[in-house]
Amino acid sequence: ADPEEPAAGRGAVDFPVAVVLPAGGSGERTGLSTPKQFCTFLTRPLISYTIQAFERVPWIERIVVVVAKESHSLMTDIVEKFNHAKVKIVHGGSTRHRSIFCGLQAFAETDESLLHKPKVVIIHDAVRPFVEEDFLHKITMAAKEQGASGAMRPLVSTVIATTSEGYLDHSLERAKYRASEMPQGFLYDIIYQAYQRCSESDFEFGTECLHLALHYCGTNAKLIEGPPTLWKVTYKRDLAAAEAVVKETLSQTACVMTEECAESLDLSHKLLKKLSAEDMLVDVIPNPKGVKGVSLTSNRNFIHISVNSSKLAQIAEMVMVLEETNHALLYPVVIVWVLLTVSEQSALSQRCEAASAIMDLARASEQKNILLYGVQINHSKVPEQWERSVTKLSQLAAALIRDRNPILTGQILQA
Amino acid sequence: ADPEEPAAGRGAVDFPVAVVLPAGGSGERTGLSTPKQFCTFLTRPLISYTIQAFERVPWIERIVVVVAKESHSLMTDIVEKFNHAKVKIVHGGSTRHRSIFCGLQAFAETDESLLHKPKVVIIHDAVRPFVEEDFLHKITMAAKEQGASGAMRPLVSTVIATTSEGYLDHSLERAKYRASEMPQGFLYDIIYQAYQRCSESDFEFGTECLHLALHYCGTNAKLIEGPPTLWKVTYKRDLAAAEAVVKETLSQTACVMTEECAESLDLSHKLLKKLSAEDMLVDVIPNPKGVKGVSLTSNRNFIHISVNSSKLAQIAEMVMVLEETNHALLYPVVIVWVLLTVSEQSALSQRCEAASAIMDLARASEQKNILLYGVQINHSKVPEQWERSVTKLSQLAAALIRDRNPILTGQILQA
Ligand SMILES: [Mg+2]
Ligand SMILES: [Mg+2]
């Protein structure tokens, strides 16, 4: 479930594989001033998600990212900030095909470069962030065996030919055609040769690497149906969709940490039940004697129940451990701190005390991509009231975890 | 900006126009158990957004929604709940083409039906909610003049033909082809005749109404390039994208209501400045002597500043007016109630008083699709602290308005 977990192994790839990621597009279709590959969601630019999709695959050695010269320093910052160790940045040409050729040349210039020539090279788009290891494996194996391979998808619309006056001429039989998508894989020698042979017109107007391999090297690519997650982030709405996909993945699990008093244990088990009913996978860890004993880094979402406000010290310790392990480098981590008050009388003063403490800690944590929220819940002696409060707490925790809104950090909500 | 405002007029359509909206699909591609046209965001099913896109167009008389028999009562409930006065529900067939034919027949059965035959009929998809009046006008006029018309878009992917073994055969020259999209328009007599003449195979496997008009009536449709907003909600991620589009549209304006005391006026003008800098269109209304004098229904987002908590009565009045005018029927309305406290001493007691009052009102309002949130801000005498609080308030208000999260209603946040 964690986006950083590599997919289960399926037979090693025992030959060198590299990636070329053209990222020179201007992204005018998003309706945004920033090229879409550099648009940010959850504090990270889109291209970093795409890079990460390759970087987590152990058998991929190198990722050559091809950018326009004016994006060089921006791209360097991204690579440094998010620790993309497999990336080499090269400068692109004026069209997509010229940029891909620049990327391929990075492996050919063996005198100047430390990049050794891969057996198979995967070409992908910077704006298709959700490619999975499984599918990359298929593309890679097919490329090795057939010389070229590519993702395809069923057509979503009927394809029509128009007359020069803008009238329907004919429509294509949908079943006979497919949409060609990315990634595509090639034996390096074949695609590099194809680009060396291709014409100025191909460089200028061509759209399809598979066509170049066919036309200049006689290689008929093997086509493999890809999943819908291969879709291309094109419009502003696609950024919202990509963000929603990442948020859903990040929100599938939570770790509830509780003290061993009766009210806190009761609350944690009720939370477990309610959140599980919403398809969240929840672990309850009782009596965390300091957080160091707990494997924090297997989780992205924590619900920490304190029976009085002084326990914010434990949250501060958690934040420190998460920082030290760099756990929030790629995705924000959520901590929902639950202040369980057991008497109406003390509830107000405890809340006040908590309010000033949490705001400062939350501000500092947010800088480290750790999002800290507070929820107060009063342990009512009236069972129906207690049940209502627990339901509300569970809804609030689920919403805070799902939305990951940095603006709301440091707030204490009321369950 | 308001999604309910009809686009500016562009010459009346002086002939009857109706719509057929096939909505019988099972939506297996969303990965959801509910057919996608019935999936809900912002408390309303997708199909209601699509219906509304037609209903707000004054020259469209009738909308025939074609559903599977098992969805009849669900669809009836939607039509009643959201007051879709132009809709007639009919039962569909087993394929898309059969369903469209059922929809067209509703106008032909003049003995049994009150629907008179339209000159032009527009066929659309229930899952393309963002069609604009402008474009419908173009489609309608072209259909009247040419007999048939349809939306087209540039191809987003290269279209390829595959060999029977799954290899690339050839790729199409992208510039020569287009994707056929919806809506499409027809002279009613032409498309009805085409459906009467077409074969079982057309009904079973056909995908393209334009093709039927061409093949059976010799009518070459006029093709008109449509905007990217015509896209089809297909996958779960598209629902998130559609929700984001609607939320963005709803969040473009806000009305700030303020008392005439110096602190409140100062705050409202600072808010105006900060929210305007984020491209929100903000009106400030000073001294609202009761809300009845203010045209509430021209707004979807209110920021109401109270200098002490007793003024929740004005919020209750606003909620009542909004309810009476049915203003939140189609889209949720947001009220951010700002509790401005002018001394640290009284801040806490006022907040407590407010906290219990707002929770009850918020719970009742939410039933009416009116989302009420509280934010407390303390008027610090230290200018830098005041500035920081105002910035925080502005961020919180913008986030509450944009996110429209019903789970957070009734909370009092801290600016
Ligand atoms: Mg290498
Ligand atoms: Mg009529």
Name its key features.
12 helices; binds magnesium ion; six-stranded parallel beta sheet; 415 residues; alpha/beta; seven-stranded mixed beta sheet; disordered N terminus; homodimer; Spore Coat Polysaccharide Biosynthesis Protein SpsA, Chain A; 17 strands; Rossmann fold
Q: Would you kindly provide a written description of the structure presented here, covering whatever features stand out?
A:
Two copies of one chain form a homodimer. Chain A has 415 residues and is of the alpha/beta class. Chain A folds into two domains: 17-158 and 173-246, Spore Coat Polysaccharide Biosynthesis Protein SpsA, Chain A (Alpha-Beta Complex), CATH 3.90.550.10; 251-414, Flavodoxin domain (Rossmann fold), CATH 3.40.50.360. Helix content of chain A is 39%, strand content 23%. The first copy, chain A, has helices at residues 46-55, 72-81, 96-108, 133-146, 188-197, 200-205, 209-217, 236-250, 262-277, 312-324, 344-366, 383-403; strands at residues 17-22, 40-41, 44-45, 60-67, 87-91, 120-123, 148-153, 158-162, 168-171, 177-187, 222-225, 253-258, 281-286, 301-306, 333-341, 370-378, 412-414. In chain A, the strands form four sheets. A seven-stranded mixed β-sheet of chain A has the order 5-4-1-6-10-7-11, sandwiched between helices. The interface between A and B is large, with 69 and 68 residues. The complex binds magnesium ion (2 copies).
